[in-house]
């Protein structure tokens, strides 16, 4: 508790200084030309973590390959960290293409299936190293770049109608906290994370990707692993203060990059406010579903642990599942349900149309 109190005051002070000097800007920055005329995405390339992974992580390393993951879609565990579809699937559907094949399965897919792009995201990864031996985002982009060099699947000329999703869902920060680092170090570390994201975005643009979608960080203080302490009733303000700083720095980076490219190449996907809008079911674009207890997960450990999918030595389940996953926003301690993601994307639909595919 003392750690969280110190963290809250440290971040509050840092944010106050930022605000005093007018450093916090809007999502799109000063460049307001959101439209890339006649742009119709045909390929989606995905980089990131479990919010975007659709089957890259090996079965031995993740609960996402265990029952009850995947019970809504595809009806069995398939590597997605949810009961069904995740962010990648909904973005692909939004732009009108099939969800891209995971890199791990590329050799088992036909050429036609590969034409929609590829997913390089691995659950548990971050901008920096979070879980060895899983590839961080830099390594994921290296894999993509090597594919382009070989040229037998994709060539740089094919990227003129491509979109990239760059998903960062907080693994760098959970790793930082697990290392018992001082709360006073947090602001500097957040800047390191965002600076590296900028490097990654520049690399993808230099490789020829036409549009790059960058989700803001969701309210980490509202994840069930955190709200468990309040019986899933309240978000943690100190964790969300961390997120606000991350997102404001990210907004500055995107605004700067768009001013450089002059085409609004980079698009912020405002997960932070979309999540909160769905939780409250209020605002101009409320979610498609009203969740009675949005902070409570559907799949919950029988003790204070979040071990969805785990069984004991006798095969007895160490978790319980709610009667209807569609009634829950969160699936487990960290990840939304398919219905949760559907609601988030219903909130984001208008801004995505304006910034990504409107002609």
From TrEMBL:
Keywords for this protein: Hydrolase, Lipid degradation, Lipid metabolism, Signal
Family: Belongs to the 'GDSL' lipolytic enzyme family.
Signal peptide: 1-29
Record InterPro entries: GDSL, SGNH_hydro_sf, SGNH_plant_lipase-like
Classification via Pfam families: Lipase_GDSL
Single GO BP term: lipid catabolic process
Superkingdom of origin organism: Eukaryota
Protein name in UniProt: GDSL esterase/lipase
CDD domains, per the entry: SGNH_plant_lipase_like (cd01837)
Provenance organism: Cardamine amara subsp. amara
Alphabetized GO MF terms: hydrolase activity
């Amino acid at each position: 508790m003392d750690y969280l109190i110190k963290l809250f005051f440290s971040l509050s002070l840092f944010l106050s200084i930022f605000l005093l000097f007018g450093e916090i800007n809007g999502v799109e920055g000063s460049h307001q030309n959101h439209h890339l005329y006649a742009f119709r995405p045909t390929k989606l390339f995905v980089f990131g973590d479990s919010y975007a992974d659709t089957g890259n992580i090996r079965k031995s390393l993740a609960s996402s390959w265990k029952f009850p993951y995947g019970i809504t879609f595809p009806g069995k565990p398939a590597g997605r960290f949810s009961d069904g579809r995740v962010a990648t699937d909904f973005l692909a559907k939004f732009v009108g293409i099939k969800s891209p094949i995971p890199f791990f399965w590329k050799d088992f897919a036909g050429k036609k299936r590969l034409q929609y792009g590829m997913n390089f995201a691995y659950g548990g990864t971050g901008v920096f190293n979070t879980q060895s031996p899983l590839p961080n985002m830099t390594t994921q982009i290296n894999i993509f770049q090597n594919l382009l060099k070989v040229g037998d699947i994709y060539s740089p000329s094919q990227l003129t109608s491509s979109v990239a999703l760059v998903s960062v869902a907080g693994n760098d920060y959970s790793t930082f906290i697990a290392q018992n680092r001082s709360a006073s170090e947090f602001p500097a570390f957040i800047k390191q994370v965002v600076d590296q994201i900028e490097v990654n975005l520049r690399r993808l643009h230099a490789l020829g990707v036409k549009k790059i979608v960058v989700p803001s960080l969701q309210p980490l203080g509202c994840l069930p692993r955190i709200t468990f302490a309040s019986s899933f009733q309240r978000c943690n303000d100190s964790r969300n203060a961390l997120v606000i700083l991350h997102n404001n720095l990210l907004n500055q980076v995107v605004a700067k990059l768009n001013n450089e490219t002059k085409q609004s190449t980079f698009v912020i996907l405002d997960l932070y406010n979309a999540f909160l809008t769905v939780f409250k079911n209020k605002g101009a674009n409320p979610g498609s579903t009203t969740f009675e207890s949005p902070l409570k997960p559907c799949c919950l450990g029988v003790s204070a642990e979040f071990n969805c999918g785990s069984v004991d030595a006798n095969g007895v389940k160490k978790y319980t599942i709610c009667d209807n996953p569609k009634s829950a926003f969160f699936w487990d301690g960290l990840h939304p349900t398919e219905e949760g993601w559907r609601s988030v994307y219903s909130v984001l639909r208008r801004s995505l149309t304006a910034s990504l595919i409107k002609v």
